[in-house]
Amino acid sequence: MIIGERVRLRAPAREDLLKFVAWLNDPEVRQGLALHLPISIDQEQRWYDSMLERPNDEHPLVIEIRSGEAWVPVGNCGFINIDWRNRSAELGIFIGEKSYWNQGYGTEAVQLLTRHGFETLNLNRIYLRVFENNRRAIRSYEKAGFIDEGRMRQAEFQQGGYLDLLFMSVLRSEWGGDRDNE
Question: Pairing mode, if any, of strands 61-67 and 88-95?
């Protein structure tokens, strides 16, 4: 496990799939993701089985928060498109439990995953994609040290209109480690 102050990241288990499906079928949650159709439990089980065949470094991690003495799953995050030769990877994250939005859990999860990427996986560059209208996520990424590096104009069609897709990244040389005080 990767453990922070209020958040921990752990490997997903088959028991998590029902929660994942519920989150990914919520239109508000899905709006910030590159998914535009609901998913079934069968699809999620196929995804899970295929995920287990990939290297461990490419497995997503469940984001859990401390609630009293228990840990509650609220979302997931991980690296995709890992390029070991160039030491770069794409970060993906979502908080599926909307009652935990705007409380800094996503920011802490991004910080933990970024630290893991630089200090454990020896990455040099971590990047991500985010829709221009996802101000909450953009602010979270900025707090974790990511900077804007470009955009694809009108790259996503959602709810009758086009959105720009922003690219953000952080390099090991500019990463400041803990950014809890920002």
Answer: unpaired
